[in-house]
């Protein structure tokens, strides 16, 4: 069953939990400095490293072979970013059958491991992402500095390279116009309120 067809823990409010890890290879520039052929080379190295990963079978999807509608469909299901869907040259996607695990290759970073589970399940999502990350780190030379942590193209992702989030269904707060106040409150806890499609996107409840 696809993750978005299931009702998880506290599923009446928490639609999904997402954990994302951003990683880069030490021997290559960030994707923004790579051409399509170089991106294909980096993607091939990462796919080879995952070829013997048996925990969860992952299907290799060539983004250039997808129709624009197919790419947009993946973005609408939160399996890839809208930016990844709009520019597919040299990029690949590794996707599990249940679509709860997706790995974007050469998006903003060389590797973006994403796990989405239904309902409130941060620990489970992290464990699944960490297994893939550990498998890759045993085979690849990640860009890492003792002082900064994992090196990422965007400085805000430096350190663990991890983003953890939950998608909440809060229609009454949205209708009442209370989302701005809620955003201010959660920011004091070190949290950020975003729309359903991430940064720069308004929430619709």
How would you characterize this protein structure?
With 205 residues, the protein is an alpha+beta fold. The chain starts with 13 loop residues before the first strand and ends in an 18-residue tail after the last helix. It has six helices and eight strands, in the order βαβααβββαβββαα. Strand 3 and strand 4 (101-105) form a beta hairpin. The model has no long low-confidence stretch (mean pLDDT 90).
**Total beta-strand segments:** 8
SSE class: alpha+beta
Extract low-pLDDT stretches. Answer: none
- Average pLDDT figure: 90
Order of helices and strands, N to C? Answer: EHEHHEEEHEEEHH
Q: What's the total helix number? A: 6
Rg over CA atoms, rounded to whole Å, is: 17 Å
> How is the largest sheet built, in terms of strand order?
2-3-4-5-1-8
Tertiary shape: globular
Largest sheet: 6 strands, antiparallel
Helical amount: 25-40%
Question: What kind of assembly state do the chains in view correspond to?
Answer: single chain
Task: Describe how the helices and strands are arranged.
Elements: E1 14-23, H1 36-49, E2 58-62, H2 68-76, H3 82-86, E3 92-96, E4 101-105, E5 111-118, H4 122-137, E6 144-145, E7 149-150, E8 162-168, H5 171-176, H6 179-187
Antiparallel strand pairs: 1-5, 1-8, 2-3, 3-4, 4-5, 6-7
């Amino acid at each position: 069953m696809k993750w978005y067809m299931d009702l998880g823990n506290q599923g009446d409010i928490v639609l999904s939990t997402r954990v994302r890890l951003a990683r880069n290879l030490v021997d290559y520039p960030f994707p923004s400095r790579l051409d399509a052929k170089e991106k294909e080379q980096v993607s091939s190295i990462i796919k080879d490293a995952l070829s013997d990963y048996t925990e969860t079978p992952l299907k290799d999807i060539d983004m250039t072979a997808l129709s624009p509608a197919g790419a947009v469909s993946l973005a609408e299901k939160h399996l890839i970013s809208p930016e990844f869907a709009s520019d597919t040259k040299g990029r690949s996607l590794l996707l599990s059958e249940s679509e709860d695990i997706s790995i974007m290759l050469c998006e903003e970073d060389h590797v973006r491991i994403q796990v989405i589970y239904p309902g409130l399940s941060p620990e489970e999502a992290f464990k699944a992402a960490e297994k893939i990350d550990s498998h890759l780190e045993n085979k690849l030379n990640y860009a890492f500095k003792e002082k900064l942590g994992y090196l990422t193209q965007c400085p805000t992702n430096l350190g663990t390279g991890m983003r953890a989030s939950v998608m909440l269904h809060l229609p009454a707060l949205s209708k009442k116009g209370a989302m701005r106040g809620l955003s201010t409150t959660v920011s004091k806890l070190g949290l950020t309120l975003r729309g359903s499609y991430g940064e720069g996107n308004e929430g619709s409840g």
